[in-house]
Amino acid sequence: MDGGTFMYKWTDEDVARLIRLHQENEALFSGRRNAAQQGWEVVLKEMGLQDLVSPARAAKKWENLKKTFKILEGRQQEIPLEVALLHIVGSGNPAPKGIVRLLDSFKVPGELLLVLERPVPCKDLFDYVSNRGVHLEEEETKVIMRQLLEAVQVIYDRGVVHRDLKTENVLIESDSSHLQAHLIDFGCADLLRDRPFTKFRGTTLYTAPEWFTENKLHGVSSTVWQLRTIMDEILHLRRPFSNANEIIQKPLMLQKGLSVSRDEAA
């Protein structure tokens, strides 16, 4: 069908999966032309597109992606997954609130340079709280957590999970008129999926207990845990856990005087 009247339209999730699978099967693409075709056959089968897209069409899509993401020619041709995911979560007009946008990217020997939007004035949530010397009040915490939940929902809807939510990865834009939280640093991010992740990414003290007990993490539940840890930290001016044992065993402790829902009060 790829060579006929029907032309498959690639989605943003397709693009991210294409990039990741190309990286995972990089050895198949080296050498002769036949080897590259074998690589595309493997990737397309994994994506479930083998009957919709030909290896030649996939190769052409790859060349266009390299131009779109401004990847410099060199020994390695892979497109960094972080760049693709930032493009997915930050695209749209108007751009979604709560996510710092990728403006440009450059690959130089040994490193990847990202040009990111920077709201002014701003500071990360860790500094925003610690520079005050006191914990945030409940109402301000509600505003920030609501905005973080909305941002997480945006990236979920676009098929992405952050995997490293923490106070250092939240940028707070504050001026006299409003407060806005932004998610930053998608270096540990991945495509959202039903099956658990079995490779660790993120920050240990924000990691859900299931990693330490089962060596796996589910995208949604681990995100809820990280958000809970952030809320605890900004409400109490301290990180709630100092090691893996505390993450597994320590009960939730909230300061006195916080409001509770009717269900909790009952």
From TrEMBL:
<dbReference type="GO" id="GO:0005737">
    <property type="term" value="C:cytoplasm"/>
</dbReference>
<dbReference type="InterPro" id="IPR051138">
    <property type="entry name" value="PIM_Ser/Thr_kinase"/>
</dbReference>
<dbReference type="GO" id="GO:0043066">
    <property type="term" value="P:negative regulation of apoptotic process"/>
</dbReference>
<keyword id="KW-0723">Serine/threonine-protein kinase</keyword>
<comment type="similarity">
    <text>Belongs to the protein kinase superfamily. CAMK Ser/Thr protein kinase family. PIM subfamily.</text>
</comment>
<protein>
    <recommendedName>
        <fullName>non-specific serine/threonine protein kinase</fullName>
        <ecNumber>2.7.11.1</ecNumber>
    </recommendedName>
</protein>
<dbReference type="InterPro" id="IPR044822">
    <property type="entry name" value="Myb_DNA-bind_4"/>
</dbReference>
<dbReference type="Pfam" id="PF00069">
    <property type="entry name" value="Pkinase"/>
</dbReference>
<feature type="domain" description="Protein kinase">
    <location>
        <begin position="1"/>
        <end position="266"/>
    </location>
</feature>
<keyword id="KW-0418">Kinase</keyword>
<dbReference type="InterPro" id="IPR011009">
    <property type="entry name" value="Kinase-like_dom_sf"/>
</dbReference>
<dbReference type="InterPro" id="IPR008271">
    <property type="entry name" value="Ser/Thr_kinase_AS"/>
</dbReference>
<dbReference type="InterPro" id="IPR000719">
    <property type="entry name" value="Prot_kinase_dom"/>
</dbReference>
<keyword id="KW-0067">ATP-binding</keyword>
<keyword id="KW-0547">Nucleotide-binding</keyword>
<dbReference type="GO" id="GO:0007346">
    <property type="term" value="P:regulation of mitotic cell cycle"/>
</dbReference>
<dbReference type="GO" id="GO:0004674">
    <property type="term" value="F:protein serine/threonine kinase activity"/>
</dbReference>
<keyword id="KW-0808">Transferase</keyword>
<dbReference type="GO" id="GO:0005524">
    <property type="term" value="F:ATP binding"/>
</dbReference>
<dbReference type="Pfam" id="PF13837">
    <property type="entry name" value="Myb_DNA-bind_4"/>
</dbReference>
